[in-house]
Design goal:
By secondary structure, the chain is an alpha+beta fold. It is built from three helices and three strands; from the N terminus they run αβββαα. It is globular. The relative contact order is 0.17.
Length: about 80
């Protein structure tokens, strides 16, 4: 799964940083696509659904935030 253009543009404009794509090797032998995101702990790998939820939250109205919170609880 890749980031949508909307999410990539938002992160670039908001942080002034283009997220770096990386592939993580999971303990079960599978691989996951993540992007390095700036945080108070330095650069952290975030899965695509988490970034998409973050961008949706930051760009949504108050009414839309309730539905987004319900989706985020499952991520």
């Amino acid at each position: 799964m890749e980031l949508t253009k909307n999410s990539l543009d938002f992160i670039t404009n908001h942080f002034g940083y283009t997220p770096e794509r990386m592939t993580m090797n999971n303990p079960d032998g599978t691989q996951s696509i993540t992007y390095l995101m700036p945080s108070r702990h330095g650069m952290e790998p975030w899965p695509v659904p988490r970034i998409e939820a973050y961008v949706a939250w930051m760009t949504s109205t108050m009414d839309e935030k309730v539905a987004i919170l319900q989706k985020v609880e499952t991520i």
